[in-house]
Amino acid sequence: MSLLDWIILIATLAAIILYGVWKSRGHKNIDGYFLGNQSMPWYIVLLSIVATQASAITFLSAPGQAYTDGMRFVQYYFGLPLAMVVLCITFVPIFHRLKVYTAYEFLEQRFDLKTRTFTAGLFLLQRALSTGISVYAPSIILSSLLGWNIYWTNIVMGGLLIIYTMSGGTRAVSYTQTLQLAIIFTGMFLAGWMVVHLLPENISFSDALHVSGKMDRLNVIVTSFDWQDKYNIWSGLIGGFFLALSYFGTDQSQVGRYLTARSVTESRLGLLMNGLVKVPMQFFILLIGALVFVFYLYFRSPIFFNQAQLNKVYRTEHGAALKALEQQYGRLSDVKQQQVKALAGALEVKDEAAVQQAQAALRQTEANAAGVREEAIKVIKQADPAADDNDTNYIFLHFVVHNLPKGLVGLLIAIIFLASWGSIAAALNSLASTTVVDIYKRMVNKNGTEEHYLKVSRRWTLIWGLFCIGVAQFASELGSLIEAVNVLGSLFYGVILGIFMVAFYIKRIGGHATFWAAIISEGLVILVFILDIVSFLWLNVIGCVLVVVLAAIIQLFVRSRPRAGTVQ
Amino acid sequence: MQNEKPPLFPAWWMWYLLVIGFLAMLIILFYSFTKTFE
User: Fold this and answer.
1) Which chain B residue has the Cα nearest residue A91?
2) Using a CB-CB distance cutoff of 8 angstroms, which residues of chain B are in contact with residue A96?
3) What confidence tens digit (pLDDT) does each residue in A344-391 have?
4) What is the b/e burial string over A199-217, where b = at least 16 CB atoms within 10 angstroms of the residue's CB?
5) pLDDT tens figures, A553-564
6) Residue A43, C-beta contacts closer than 8 angstroms, at least 6 positions apart
7) Quick check: helix, strand or coil at residue A261?
8) Based on C-alpha coordinates, what's the Rg of chain B?
9) C-alpha–C-alpha distance, residues A35 and A273, integer Å
């Protein structure tokens, strides 16, 4: 990185920390610390929801996903707007009316203490581990590409935000997220513009789209159905709906965001606006990846995007074999450059026969290059059995570091940090609120003063921050990290959602039946995952349905009546 | 609280319809996009 890049990176991060600290003033109780005194307007709620969901992994992995697999990943978000509507109708009014700090608090009012504690425990386990991955994912990529020490990168990635999250609570989180998103969107727009700008002069944006489409990278909608297929319109609408409903309705890192709204109306507007903007936003991030793919048809791409891993192999006895494969791959890249020019030319004159011929030739060369790349990955694994053979997360940042002008590289790297901070800060705040409200205040110390709870809340924010950095220091071998986070979520979200579904919609079922149904269902979901029967998105549906069905069956054999009259 | 009036529209169900309708429109647009460039 150049000096200018360093200045921009450090100045951006310092500005966010100072802004967060400035917004941290004046907390006297946990009402302000965890709910921001319920004073946020809808647009702050919206930006906070978006920033919490969009981690650094979103901006690193999604373009890489489009590069390797096309844009069909966007279908994963199709269930989200539907989930927003359900949340606005059911969850939001109840949470506001009961004036809860956490979603799990409601479960004790509806069921009993053990169901509340079990659900809060599932959340803490899942959220703490996935936040650790959220710290590690961008750190490993930055450390590989820029040669930074991974341990220190993890500490900066997960540590600096603790300064304002610990002191400022939810209000500092929300306001810094707003500023972070403004910087992120500016940077991503500039990156997208630069990809098109860096293409050969005679290739317009429209030409690039046509080339990308002919190479199957604009496969936004896939209508064929397959249980094992992760991204088609059906898994996106159904599986994505359940995942989004679980995430936004029962994950405290999101519930805590819209509970800060000043009214039900502001919460609803924030969520509904999220339903309107999320899918187009994801579409444009993926489009950048599809355009980066076109860029690397016109210019040589590395055989493997994780340069640090290649450097490791060069130093072993397998180095010569790898270099030979790289030369072969380079020659195929040269052939591709000629073929893509022929394809673009044929597209321009609308010669269908020539288009098909050029497309077939380019696809054949692409397949040959993929074969050589597979060989190279085998060599990498032979040289370093612990190596991560998935370089999806490195593609976009490799493009940024090697092709964007000075200054913009620093800004894009700052964006990786800011995107991480936005989601990690919200996660730490939610981990602390769940620990303090659902466990400490409920079971350990019921009679503390407001000052005491505020002090404990700050302490737990720090403890969870350190824990997540600890997880990050040990995380590795997880393949596509965006997928790892989603798989982890899918293991628990379905069951948690099932508990809430019973709570909201089936009033004759009580806490005892729901508690045991949840425990059995969680075991079955983990079993289905281990046996690899269906794609992970379906685990959300399975977990939810299992809890509802099993709870209904168990209730038939349980004498105790459910608590009545708490929820309407 | 549940009867709070929404902005712009007289009832919340219209907002919900807008969000669902917008999603349907996006799916149709994306489908056309896929077919146009495939």
Assistant:
1) B2
2) 1
3) 888 888 888 898 899 999 999 999 999 999 999 999 999 988 777 888
4) beeebeeebbbbbbbbbbb
5) 999 887 655 554
6) A270, A273
7) strand
8) 15
9) 21
Kindly report, residue by residue over A515-525, the tens digit of the pLDDT.
999 999 999 99
Phi and psi at residue A226, to the nearest 5°: -155, 125
- Is residue A63 classed exposed, middle or buried when 0-12, 13-18 and 19+ CB atoms within 10 A define those classes? buried
- Picking from B9, B19, B25, B36 by the largest number of A CB atoms within 10 A of its own CB, the best residue to mutate is B19
Q: Please state, in angstroms and as integers, the Cα–Cα distance from residue A122 to each residue in A26, A132, A431, A519, A522, following that order.
A: 32, 16, 11, 10, 10
Q: Does A279 sit within 8 Å of B37, measured CB to CB?
A: no
Q: Taking a C-beta distance cutoff of 8 angstroms, is the pair A145, A404 a contact?
A: no
What the block records as the tokens of A461 is: 């924010």
Reported pTM: 0.85
> Measured between alpha carbons, how far is residue A549 from residues A37, A54, A322, A492, A541 in Å?
39, 33, 54, 17, 12
CA distance B23 to chain A (A): 7
Other Cβ atoms within 10 Å of A516 Cβ, number? 17
Q: Report the 10 Å Cβ neighbour count for B14.
A: 11
Residue A488, C-beta contacts closer than 8 angstroms, at least 6 positions apart? A126, A129, A130, A133
pLDDT in tens, A144-157: 777 888 888 888 88
Question: What are the angstrom distances between the C-alpha of A380 and each of A68, A304, A387?
Answer: 19, 10, 7
Q: Which residues contact A215 (CB under 8 A, 6 or more apart)?
A: A293, A294, A297, A359, A362, A363, A366
Distance between CA A88 and CA B20 in Å, rounded?
A: 13
Cα separation, B30 vs B26, whole angstroms: 6
